[in-house]
Amino acid sequence: RLKNFLTSHSGTGEGSVRLISHSNLSEFFRENLLQHYIDISKSVDIGKAYKKVFNYQILTPLKRGRFATESINNYFINALKTYFHLPKLRSYFNGMPVLINKNDYANRLFNGDLGLIFGENSAELKICFPSQEDSGFRQFRLKDIYGYEFAYCLTVHKSQGSEFESVVLVLPEKSDFMSRELIYTALTRARHSVVIIGNPDTLAEAVSLKTTRMSGLREKIHGVTP
């Protein structure tokens, strides 16, 4: 029943959904995603880098906690700093994906817009977003943009409205923060393939639940302050 739900709701076809355990999370990140982000940070072509960075997207239901956006984003930021021998206090470097989380009408940037920090050196770093008028990019100084977060990993909620070639869905250890609808939303972000990292029993329980179970958990799931 679980397999049928996953393949029928992903839109990616039979065999395109893979489940691995939490114990293999770090190994999976190192072997499948770290080099992906290293290549992006080495890129000197904004168009190619932007397209590549959002080929893969990590999603999770939670903003805070062990398997949540903050910890996963920090994992990749620290791993990339180590690889490139960057100072620990360096806040920005080439190739960092970002998500606008607050409407910025002056700069015509809106909640959910995905961008990339890009520049040949630290002095030239800009936040770049695809232009709506042409195939180029709108570039902003870091100090001119507010209301954004790093986007190596996004909450499922914040990924709504976006599509990616492949999705890696990292589940929490308990199903309290999940529902069938949330899993469905995550699966349908992917055009081709999905990797789910978590406990199959937790996933099966979540698939059996509807959002009525979710009341009162909005802040924990979405990181929303009332």
Automatic annotation (TrEMBL):
Pfam families: UvrD_C_2 (PF13538). Keywords: ATP-binding, Nucleotide-binding. Residues 150-197 form the UvrD-like helicase C-terminal domain. GO terms for molecular function: ATP binding; DNA helicase activity. Gene3D superfamilies: P-loop containing nucleotide triphosphate hydrolases (3.40.50.300). This is UvrD-like helicase C-terminal domain-containing protein. The lineage of its organism: Bacteria, Pseudomonadati, Deferribacterota, Deferribacteres, Deferribacterales.
